[in-house]
């Protein structure tokens, strides 16, 4: 089994406490994304798992092996952990095949060549073994880096912002290929990123790190639909935040009366609700819903993001965001209805 269990991991550099009790549990063969703003300690966490850095306290366990506990740990080469760095870092003077074979024992001979072929096929580069790294695109280089990491058959693969150097068009397809290759290999993966779309789109589990702790770890859809707090709600995707008075599991807001997620567990009181823009639907003025005025539209091609304002309880304008197929004329009056339950954060 290749389950990765991290408990109570702490690390300070001088007087700066970077990791303050990180807990993370990644099932065998799953891919976890560690999502957090720049400087929150993501790379430090990976370096500790890999054995490049010692923690001050806590434990790293892979399957039934404790690879680090407190300040003690196995050396990196005995952990069965591989790292894919930010930019492939391939050996420029070796062919693609030789790069992939680099970490494998030479005595394997024909088996080694066969394994390189398998790995290149796994990452979709079956025909490129004889090329030099400089003759590959950035996305192809990252796939070779993954194949090289997988060559010694590691239990855990760590990926440090592996797509950040790729342009937007390429990034989506390369990350899907990397996810599929990782899943096929059976290795457990941990990817660190500050890109929420990347985390949501490829990971089985997303762990949001803030101030050196995991504030929520959940499947992408659960994280998006039921964020643990207001910061997670706004960090993971866009949200319309509205003041709300709650009674009987229903919030009264500037967008009308909205049912709450797990409303039966929410006490009556005042707070804020988070509404996802795609929950807000436009209906023609006079056809129900809350009246809103269009402020402007940003058109993205596949859809558009419309900024509107509705009238709050105190008479002030409340900004609202929704998604539409195309632009709407500014100043137009429309009706808005909200579909589905919303998250509530008491006393915020
Ligand atoms: N060897 C070190 N000595 C001193 N401080 C360090 C060291 N390594 C990291 N830090 C500090 O620890 C903090 C976390 O760094 P880390 O690189 O882990 O963050 P990160 O979340 O990966 O950031 P980014 O997304 O920008 O790469 C930063 O404030 C950094 O300056």
UniProtKB/TrEMBL annotation:
It is an enzyme of class 7 (translocase). GO terms for cellular component: membrane. PROSITE patterns: ABC_TRANSPORTER_1, ABC_TRANSPORTER_2. GO terms for molecular function: ABC-type ferric iron transporter activity; ABC-type quaternary ammonium compound transporting activity; ATP binding; ATP hydrolysis activity. The keyword Magnesium does not apply. Residues 4-236 form the ABC transporter domain. Transmembrane segments: none annotated. Keywords: ATP-binding, Cell membrane, Ion transport, Iron, Iron transport, Membrane, Nucleotide-binding, Transport. Its EC number is 7.6.2.9. CDD domains: ABC_Carb_Solutes_like. Gene3D superfamilies: P-loop containing nucleotide triphosphate hydrolases (3.40.50.300). InterPro entries: AAA+_ATPase, ABC_SmlMolc_Importer, ABC_transporter-like_ATP-bd, ABC_transporter-like_CS, ABC_transpr_FbpC, Mo/tungstate-bd_C_term_dom, P-loop_NTPase. This is ABC-type quaternary amine transporter.
């Amino acid at each position: 089994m290749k389950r990765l269990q991290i408990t109570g991991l702490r690390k300070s550099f001088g007087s700066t406490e970077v990791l303050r009790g990180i807990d993370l549990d990644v099932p065998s063969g799953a891919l976890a994304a560690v999502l957090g703003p720049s400087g929150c300690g993501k790379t430090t966490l990976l370096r500790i798992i890999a054995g490049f850095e010692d923690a001050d306290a806590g434990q790293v366990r892979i399957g039934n092996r404790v690879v680090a506990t407190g300040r003690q740990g196995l050396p990196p080469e005995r952990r069965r952990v591989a790292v894919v760095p930010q930019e492939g870092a391939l050996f420029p003077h070796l062919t693609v095949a030789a790069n992939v074979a680099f970490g494998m024992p030479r005595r394997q001979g024909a088996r080694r060549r066969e394994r390189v072929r398998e790995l290149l096929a796994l990452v979709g580069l079956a025909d490129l073994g004889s090329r030099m790294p400089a003759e590959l695109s950035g996305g192809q280089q990252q796939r070779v880096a993954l194949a090289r990491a997988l060559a010694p058959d590691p239990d855990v693969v760590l990926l440090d912002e592996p797509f950040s150097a790729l342009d937007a068009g390429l990034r989506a397809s390369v990350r899907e290929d990397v996810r599929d290759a990782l899943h096929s290999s059976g290795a457990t993966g941990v990817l660190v990123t500050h890109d929420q779309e990347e985390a949501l789109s490829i990971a089985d589990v997303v762990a949001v790190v803030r101030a050196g702790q995991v504030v929520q770890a959940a499947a992408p859809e659960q994280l998006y639909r039921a964020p643990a707090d207001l910061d997670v709600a706004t960090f993971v995707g866009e949200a319309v935040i509205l003041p709300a008075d709650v009674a009987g599991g229903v919030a009264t807001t500037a967008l009308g009366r909205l049912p709450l997620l797990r409303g039966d567990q929410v006490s009556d009181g005042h707070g804020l609700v988070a509404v996802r823009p795609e929950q807000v639907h436009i209906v023609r003025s006079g056809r129900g819903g809350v009246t809103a005025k269009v402020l402007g539209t940003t058109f993205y091609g596949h859809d558009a993001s419309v900024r509107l304002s509705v009238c709050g309880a105190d008479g002030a304008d409340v900004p609202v965001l929704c998604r539409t197929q195309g632009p709407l004329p500014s100043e137009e009056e429309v009706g808005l209805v909200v579909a589905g339950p919303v998250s509530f954060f008491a006393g915020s």
